[in-house]
Write a structure and sequence with these properties.
Largest sheet: 4 strands, mixed
Helix content: 40-55%
Shape: elongated
Strand order of the largest sheet: 6-7-11-10
CATH architecture of the domain at 186-472: Orthogonal Bundle
CATH class of the domain at 186-472: Mainly Alpha
Distance between the termini: 12 Å
Number of strands: 15
Structural class: alpha/beta
CATH superfamily of the domain at 186-472: Neutral endopeptidase , domain2
Radius of gyration: 33 Å
Length: 764
Amino acid sequence: MSETELELHPEPGRVQPSPLLQLPTHYPHQILQQLESDRQRLHMSYSNIEHRVKPVWMKYRLFFLVGCFLLAVVVGLINYLSHHFHTVTPCLSPACQWASAHLSTSADPFTQPCDYFLYTCGSDRLLLDSERGQRSHGFTLHAENQRKSVQSKQEDGGLTEDKTLSRKAVLLQYLKKILETDNGMNSSAVQKTKGFYHSCLDTQSIETAGADPFLTLIQKLGGWAVSGQWNQTDFNTTLGLLMRDYNTFPFFNIFVGKDPYEAARGINKRYIQIDQPDLLIPIEWNSQTEKSRAKTETLRPFLASCQKYLDLLGAPKSSSLIHVGSFVSLSSQLAVAFSPLESRLSKGQLYQRMTIKALQRQAPAIDWLGCLQAAFHPLPLSADDDVLLHNLPYIVQMSNTIIKWLNKPEMSNSAPLHTFMVLNLLHTLMPAMDSRFFETAKNFSMALGNTEEEAPRWKHCVLETERGFDSVLTHLLSEVTAQKEAEKIIQSVFNSFKSKLHELEWIDQRSRQLVMEKVDSAIPKLWTTKEPSSEAKLDLLFSEMTVSNQNFFSNYVQLLSLWQKKRIELLITQPEDIDILSVRPFLFGKSLLFPMGMFVPPLFHPTYPRAMNYGAAGFLVAKDILHLLLPDISSQSKTVYAVGECVWTHYLTVSEKAGRGGEFPLSAAQQQEVWVQYTALQVALQAYHQNLMQQPNDTSLSGISYTRLFFRSFSQVNCEADPYHDSMPFEPAFLITVICAKYNLCPTSPQCSIQTKQNSLQAC
């Protein structure tokens, strides 16, 4: 983007120096309007004068030149006044009022000293002026304490305490707001969705109920031997019931999907697929013996956690140890045939096709037709239907193990297989259990070395709601997402990106051709369903569900039965799989799909000033495009190295390390990431200015000028916890000073101005 292009729309608050006249800042608005009117009349007069003076040019040459000079002065003065005293239209929507308040509490990169930029994202450099003053008076943090101080997981609007952006957290916060907003106009499905969420938040009712709801459910299944009350239920009958009504698969997993070998030939048929289960016991793989086993060091804490669960469920202490021992022993035997994905792939054990009848011969312990018919009821499955297996050796080993345990006479009264299934059901229903079960699971996780902090209850509830009501949340999000405006930003940024490619210096013509072909074939668009679900369709889908605001366990059990309907739908139809929690674009064929979750406040809102939307969402879109379409750009273009080193040299100059620049070489990954973020910021800014050419009027917040608001918005999202986070060697907000120095378009120079320091340095 040239400097001329950027200056086509000068900043409304930017002072254009004029030695001719200095006017007071309270110059009357009426006079400005009159001057604007005069400017238009003078412009018309100028055309007429130019036409009439030609015949008498030689005679009145001096008068003509003086007149032109005076006209230029007046027009220049009017331009100066109109730009200098332009009244920025404030945005007063509720979303803008929240954004304005949020912006007022964040650091303004234009007012920060240079040491603000000397920290990488995640350090303590993001302090307000008042906090910075405290630090300068002796409250400096030791480097080790700095690292510890930023490890908190508390989040505010998608920003962690150290102000690192998490797109997923931003989206979850917005979904939380949707679920907690009651506009009184909700459909039945929406009411049930919000009722489910609120019942999850009602921890008091959950604590009061305790383990009773689960114990009642066990009785529905025929009881269990742990309590001494078991109706000797049939093994396969219980297994089919767990698969159908409770989405629980103790001995194997089932899901629905395509055969990739057929999909490569354009065949999109979906199959029932059978895989090894998610065993509760921790296991490890031995690559030399090519066998798995239970982790020896975890057996003691695993045994203790199982014992605790039985205690919470009221099991007699005298017999519970026997049941726990059997559970651990059975789990260990099943783990032997486990195999990691890489091993199964190398051995060709994925997508093995066979009929249900053939599977029955290979693994006779399971009533395969009966269990699969239960899981996909009421679909008419037959023994001749094909299924796809992903670890046949495990399935055979699992069947042999079950037969062995069924034929142990000494185990007939303790029913270890039935207890194994009930404890797996407990694991499925753990999100709906009281805090004692949560604490037991947490203690076991910590014993395994996991130190991740517990998520707040609202986040847990949003995620559980999404698992069951994803179609409703997709509908709600699509209703509040300004799809037209989001599409416009995507297309505008993509066009700006394409124009930027012409500035690159390529290694060779072949590299340029490969990149341009890839870019030209890409079709960027918002990821939405072709046929959005209507409220009537959603109401029908959830018509059989009765939601109680004070019975989360009952609500959750009902939700499990809905997943059976989803499996059936996947098998007989071709539904559009929209991931409501997706926050990053991806390539699907020639389509470059941007999920709706990227376009939520505070990253984007249709009432925000466009400067804010382009500075935040526009920058993220540009950065994602560069990462997706140009992953190997450093080996294809000389520009990446040149720009990366140029920006890095500027950074070292400002940080007063230029004399030791050779000691800080950037790796290839760092050079590319510096180029990506610098280019993304330029692309987003150019897209915004081009948008201003088409629609000159924009709103603002707190009277902040357009370009400055663009950069303020960018500074809120530049520290992002993405996969490339560690490759950025400095705070990306420093790029603001580089661009301001290059284009001379900022309304005011940043306090950390590099213009005077870099007169001898080239523009990047």
